[in-house]
């Protein structure tokens, strides 16, 4: 085998081997941070500060019976959680982590990310359908409506960035921000992207597909054991992914302003920025109530879509007149 | 050996084969949701074909628009109306092979055309010479074809308004 192919495969392996434990650790981080913000301890028994809690949970979940309901559509039931995890992991292929790290510099990087985000909805919809139960079905249908609505203006919000940098390639977008991060001119675009990203990853306050107060557990009501863990893994991976994409598109990726950039290597800066966003996602979960489903869709179509179009229009006008 | 196996041409034919088989399963399947899933696979395979032919922009849009949005709506509708296996029972059954003659002639024409293109080196060169980038697509759409784009958008707007008119509740307050 060629050496460069070998290094590429090694890079992919290391990335997978790091991403999956990171997503698992995020479960602990979330529970611990929520505990601290709500003035209680959170899981603090397993290992130092309870950091091995996820490992303990994983061992427990491995010992659970892997039950496939006899009334379900078995093939689709097994396939659904895999689709979700694979789509999110595939998206990481186009994320440029540092000047030298990154699996692929695809010329249509943003489109690839959007495509994978829109494909990952099948995971939830199919899980809801294959479970053949009312709660799961309602969760799956909510997920379909929510994701199709929100990915419309997720794409539109990113177009402002494409307009200013003139490329779909994520690495070139980062390099185009050497003189200043795009958040300066694309604040509205960033806000819309973040809201759409939260809705795409089914996080609170947009977790209506699995709203436990009304749908028990929504689309994964019938899931148990490892398949349930795979859904969870997919959710936390997509939180990491949306954070990473926000950093790449609006916050200069691995770049930092002049005095700071020599303090730490680029990869570390990138990870620090991602962790900031992940903490923000967790803080949102602790602080916001869940809207009603029709409110969610109305908010998407009546507020966010016009805002996204307005942002695109103003960006285009400013770009044409030479202000930006 | 590995490089030879992974040549663009063989990858293209592999993706094409997947598309053909998946499409075949769409029309022969008994379960509506399974058929739709095969259609998704078929569209993804076609997107791979587009990518290998040097149109990455078209490939991306194929996945985002068709596989990611339109077919999700299809699946949504099928789920909502509970159409899974029952309705094929009531559909008119085709009698024998005569039903297939028309489609077979049409498909054979396409196949013959494709074989002729593959056999003709000069045509092939013409096809691979122009790789279409996103920028070119955009410049064409907003340059010479601007009027067509606007007419199409008017048509879509009319469709949207009609859809809204039909879906509008009779009066406020009657629905939850």
Report on the structure:
The complex is a heterodimer of chains A (324) and B (176). Chain A has 12 helices and no strands. Chain A is an all-alpha fold. The model of chain A has no long low-confidence stretch (mean pLDDT 83). Chain B is mainly alpha-helical and 176 residues long. Chain B has a domain at 1-89: NADH-ubiquinone/plastoquinone oxidoreductase chain 6, subunit NuoJ (Four Helix Bundle (Hemerythrin (Met), subunit A), Up-down Bundle). Helix content of chain B is 73%, strand content 0%. The interface between A and B is medium-sized, with 29 and 22 residues.
Question: Could you name the key traits of this structure?
Answer:
heterodimer, A: 324 residues, mainly alpha, 0% strand, globular, B: 176 residues, Four Helix Bundle (Hemerythrin (Met), subunit A), 8 helices
N-to-C order of helices and strands of chain A: HHHHHHHHHHHH
CATH class of the domain at 1-89 in chain B: Mainly Alpha
Radius of gyration of chain A from CA coordinates: 20 Å
**DSSP strand count of chain B:** 0
Shape of chain B: globular
